[in-house]
Amino acid sequence: MKFAVMDFETTGGQAEDQIIQVGLVIIEDERITQRYSTYVKPTIPIPPFITGLTGIDAETVADAPDLEQVIMELQPLLHESALVAHNVGFDLAFLQRALDSSGYMPFSGPVLDSIDFLRILFPFIESLQLNHVSHYFKIDHIRPHQADSDAEVTAEIWLRCLTKLRELPLLTLQRLTALFEQDYTHRDLAWLLRTILDEREAAPDADEEAEGFTYHRQFVLKVGDWGDEAPVRPAGEHTQLEEDFEPFYERIKHLWKQRDAYYEERDAQKQMLEEVSASFHEQKHLMIEAGTGTGKSLGYLIPSLYHGIRDEEPVLVSTHTINLQEQLRTRDVPLLQDIFPVPFRAAVLKGRSHYLCLRKFENKVNTSEFEYPKEDRITAGQMIVWLSETEHGDEEELHIHGRGAEFWRSVSSDAESCMNRACPWFKKCFYHRARHTANQADVIITNHSLLFTDIRADHRLLPMYNRLVIDEAHHLEEVASKHMGIEASYLSVTNSIWRLYKDANSGQLTVLRSRLMNLPGEWSEKAGDWISSLDRSFEALIEAKQQWDHLAEALNQCLEARVSDAGEAGQLVRRIKDEEMPAQWEDMLKLEENIYTQLDHASSRLDRLFQELKDIQETADLKSMLTDLAGGVKELNRQKDAVRFFMKRTDKNYVYWLEANPQFRMRSLHLFSVPVDVSPLLKKYFFDEKESVVLTSATLSVNKSFDYTKSQLGLAASTKLNSVQLQSPFNYRQQALVVIPRDFPAIRGRMGEEIFVEKLIASLAEVARETRGRMLVLFTSYRMLKSVYPELKEKLSEAGIQVLGQGIDSFNRSKLTKSFQENGAAVLLGTNSFWEGVDIPGEALTCLAIVRLPFQPPNHPVSEAKMDELKKNNQNPFMKLSVPQAVIRFKQGFGRLVRRASDKGIVILYDTRVIETQYGKHFLYSLPGPKIEHMSTQQMVPRIKQWMEEQG
Predict the structure, then answer these.
(1) Helix (H) or strand (E) run with residue 507 in it
(2) How far apart are alpha carbons 446 and 449 in whole angstroms?
(3) Same structural domain, 930 and 801
(4) Is 683 inside any structural domain?
(5) Rg of the chain taking only CA atoms, in angstroms
């Protein structure tokens, strides 16, 4: 096989743009045999942005050949080749236009996209950007955005794809080939798979099963039956541990020093280890703030493992983010396995929807019931390969793109459709494997969401535990509110209907109807009644969907009529309360009544039908289908009940609000019903029930006091609680300079905001030029971010500094962060989600700009409801709620700058309230000791320059 791996640099991405550089690498017999590269002289100017990206300017191409000459040299090289490119659609379009304008026939050979093959063959790759992929494969990418270099790297990547194809288990390759041969849109991809498969099957050892794999129902898995693995520590075997924790920790330190020549004991981490162990031993609760760099993960994992093993009773560790859960699994637990003196069992357990349901996936692939055939086949192919590589079946391992998230939802595990022991995949099931492992573990690592889902499920999901560590504890109240509340959305209701019936071609009930029509003669008479019942259900579902569209549109209109800009990236928010009800609410209640009635009729009729079909489910092979359908009906009922709870608003202890994105309107509509105060629930289920609860985070205190966090969690009067504040080991006095421009304008009214934004743009541009980008700017208002973005981008483009905006360049935080780090000279503008959880160590981030103090908008529904309660009790809601919330958020934002002991940088606070108001001192006093200076705006850049020079 011959492949022509191509890359073009162009003046832009439109049809009228032109090629300015060509890179081509020829691969024959899976080795590079020829290279071709040249600049091309365009007939239009090269835009400054393209020059900044590629380094190619008018002078570079001044003596280059024109397009017609280049195509004359290029065209013979493409003869009898398959064209390969990274995002091939872009290069192919330019190639075909160039061939046409030069008088040649269009390219008609196979066209292959390296991105498709990377997605399928390397499902663990986090990003498909060429730079990231080359780094993943350890390929030197010397000159990114130069066509010859990009083509060379793409060719090396393509060779790895070909190697991986030939190394796949034969059955996996057969399943992939069959999957793509069914779809004409993937004919070239299928051609390559078929070519390699034919070669593999012709080999003498083609029928041999590869070692290290499990073959089950025509799929290849990496794992066998759960429960068959050899235990880390045989059941019932007591491991000898010291009676006291301190001598045990000394043993660990000795082993740690042997493993790591650079090991250095941290006083704060040692104190945390002792405090957590003492809390477990004395059956007390602990609130412990551990600053960045403390090493708090090991600070609680080591004593948790010690007490879990010694007392033969698991300790539960809960994180807010899945990212931290994964970090504990992939970084901290492996380290502990190396240094721990005795064997231990640690398990990670997530909610069911994070695990693949093998039965659903098998059915999806075998029946080819794809909602979006072209994209879904790529995702299905990716997962077929992934099954031969994953031990956990966890979606976090699998980097799916585009509509892949919708595909995942259709094949993920859920309680309603689980057949348990009746499932042919039961002993291979990833979710049941995770639960089985958790039931035997000394430490179980879970997340806050599952913690509260377990409460709602009457404690049927998590193993019994009496000791609990809550990391990222500053989010506990927020997550409790969400999970103890009730949520519905336009898409959740729509998808629950469409899952059952979308039209005559798709939906679970449509498939069932087709199956019933083909039942053998003995059931044909009853089949007619069943089909008639289904048809009446279809009518009810169609009517409910139409009514739901009307209701969602009406709710969206009342949201747009009176909103608060209180959400992430410009979300529209409106609280629904008695004194300010929308004008058409009574009409909307009638719509909801109709929806509820229609869905109730449909679900009741379907329940009766499923009961009747149970008699023939075995002989008609309907059991799996009916299980999924029953799950679909349960989800439909849950959605209709959630909408009713919101519309009726019968529980006055809840706050109700609407939320949507103006760009996507009713498709993004959410209905929230959340309890105003969750502290009684936290007290009931955790602090009164559990022996010991450890709450830890880098941000729990305000003004060096834990009073605010204690009151929010219902611990203000607890006599069982100890609280400790540990200082970060970082030298913030040397590592961070906080600059406050004291003459910066305040925001008072609309005109004040316009002046503020104008001055902000000018200042950010000046600072960014001095720091060569490497700046993260944190906003509290998406509207202001959008105002700053275009002019700042224009001002910095001449300096070669890229501006990236959340919700403008991308909504994806990880994607934006990666682009920022890879660029090297960029300014990243972010709102709410960038204030925490973003880790940009090293010189990639030199300057952090905080535009405004992060006060939660007072008209955000939850904040407003809490303030109402405080006012009723004659308390100052601003000082009791707004300031402490903002201080904790501010500390999180400040923490983005210094992530390692070697990090150094500048923080600019553009909000002068921090030095002009009485409450401003709470913000500065809560910081971990950086150098703080205020000066005129004019003096700021010279001072930043001086400080950077002093730091080298």
Answers:
(1) none
(2) 9
(3) yes
(4) no
(5) 30
Q: Report DSSP state, residue 315.
A: E
CA distance 802 to 540: 53
DSSP letters for 70-91: HHHHHGGGGTT-EEEETTHHHH
Question: Dihedral through CA 867, CA 872, CA 875, CA 879, nearest 10?
Answer: 10
Q: Can you tell me the distance from the alpha carbon of 452 to that of 448, in angstroms, rounded to the nearest whole number?
A: 6
CA distance 342 to 389: 29
Residue 520 sits in the same domain as residue 598: yes
What CATH number corresponds to the domain at position 864?
3.40.50.300
Nearest to 734 by CA among 599, 903, 520: 903
Q: How far is CA 179 from CA 365, 381, 388, in A?
A: 7, 7, 16
Contact 863, 881 (CB under 8 A): yes
Q: Are strands 31-39 and 19-28 parallel, antiparallel or unpaired?
A: antiparallel
Amino acid present at 667:
R
Cβ–Cβ < 8 Å for 26, 83: no
465: nearest Cα among 573, 688, 314: 314
Q: Count of domains in the chain?
A: 3
Q: Measure the CA–CA gap between 352 and 413, rounded to whole angstroms.
A: 5
CB-based contact 742:932 (threshold 8 Å): no
pLDDT per position as a tens digit, 21-37: 999 999 999 999 999 99
Confidence of residue 566 (pLDDT cuts 50, 70, 90): very low
Name, in order, each residue with C-beta under 8 angstroms of 378's C-beta and a sequence gap of 6 or more. 116, 119, 120, 404
Return the pLDDT at 238: 52
Give the range of the structural domain holding residue 619, as residue numbers without chain letter. 487-675
781/879 same-domain check: yes
Which pair of tokens denotes residue 72? 């004359």
pLDDT, one tens digit per residue, over 807-847 is 888 887 888 888 888 788 899 999 988 998 888 888 889 99
Kindly state the DSSP code that residue 584 receives in the 8-state scheme: T
Distances (CA, A) of 453 to 57, 348, 444, 456, 749: 58, 16, 16, 5, 44
Residues 671 and 773 in one domain: no
Q: Which amino acid is at 636?
A: L
Report if residue 605 sits inside a domain: yes
Same domain (yes/no): 614, 747: no
**Residues 751, 871 share a domain:** yes
Residue 622 and residue 753 in one domain: no
Helix-helix angle 623-648:490-500, to 10 degrees:
150
Residues 739 and 880 in one domain: yes
Report residue 940 as tokens: 């700021």
CATH code for position 83:
3.30.420.10
Distance CA 70, CA 67 (A): 5
pLDDT tens-place string over residues 661-697: 887 888 999 999 999 999 999 999 999 999 999 999 9
In a domain, 324, yes or no: no
pLDDT confidence bin for 206, thresholds 50/70/90: low
Q: How far is 842 from 921, CA to CA, in rounded Å? A: 30
Kindly report the number of other CB atoms within 10 A of residue 695's CB atom: 27
Residue 64 CB-density burial (10 A; 0-12 exposed, 13-18 middle, 19+ buried): middle
How long a stretch of residues is the chain?
Answer: 952
Q: Is the pLDDT of residue 731 over 80?
A: yes
Q: Do the domain assignments include residue 327?
A: no
- Distance, in Å, from the CA atom of 285 to the CA atom of 715, rounded to the nearest integer, reads 10
d(CA 928, CA 930): 6
Predicted confidence at residue 951, as pLDDT, reads: 83
Q: Are 676 and 886 in contact (CB under 8 A)?
A: no
